[in-house]
Amino acid sequence: MDLKLNGKVAIITGGGAGIGAAMCETFAEEGVNLIIADFRPIEQTEAYAKELANKYGVETMGVKVDVSNPDDVCALYEAALKKFGTVDILMNNAGKMGLNRIEDVTINELRKFEAVNIEGLFLMSQGLIKIHREQKKKKSWIVNTISKSAFTTNSGGNSPYIATKGAAASFTRGLASEVGREGIYVNGIIPGYVKTETTKSIPNAKERSEAMTKIIPVGREAEPKEIADVAVFLCSEKACQVMGALVDVTGGTML
Ligand SMILES: NC(=O)c1ccc[n+]([C@@H]2O[C@H](COP(=O)([O-])OP(=O)(O)OC[C@H]3O[C@@H](n4cnc5c(N)ncnc54)[C@H](O)[C@@H]3O)[C@@H](O)[C@H]2O)c1
Fold it and tell me: Would you tell me which CATH number, out of the four given (3.30.70.60, 3.30.230.10, 3.40.50.720, 3.40.30.10), belongs to the domain 9-248?
């Protein structure tokens, strides 16, 4: 299936690892030029950008950015416009995860979740919408990475994450309704249990993985690439009737 994405320009936040890194590779396979935005050490992000450029023949750049910092976001869009002249696609994928018992949640810790998982989405989306309007583009795409925790959870102790991912889901629908008529597609994807370096390194990861396997209808945790495939599809003409959707990619976990 030709997704007709060749030559487009995408920003992927949190593109240096996990689901975001898989999104970068999937876009690169489709001929999309990449701005990999991550707050890891810039050498790591640039090395990954070069690797994908060499492998797939696309143009790439790595940028060090904290999506919750307005100055970083401004600088990111300036750099993107300088190199590529436009941005067509934004994957709002960077997220702050973590387990926090309610009695341990300080206001500062709560604000860190809000900053990355809510403010980051606002700031990054404003940047793309500004380009869409100034350049009078016909279509642009935003995909937000939500989480199944926003809808159903059994972890018993991550209310800041759940609350902010719930806000991200509502933001997705609200923004689609606000800017959809301008040709800006805003959708969300809902991963469930995904095998990344981060989830593999949590305490009791093996036991957790075995327990998950029993409750996931497809019988196993997802690979990052399996989430990326759906996210990339949402940015194609083939998904032109999908607007404001929150697409369940949990392998049936939410059933
Ligand atoms: N892994 C899962 O099981 C799972 C499940 C549901 C939802 N999600 C969501 O998917 C998204 C990606 O998660 P992942 O598992 O791939 O994570 P990950 O930890 O493997 O990678 C996240 C990347 O984002 C970067 N990042 C984090 N905060 C940032 C910030 N403020 N600014 C810029 N970059 C930042 C990190 O440096 C890292 O490279 C997150 O939004 C997460 O909440 C993950």
Answer: 3.40.50.720
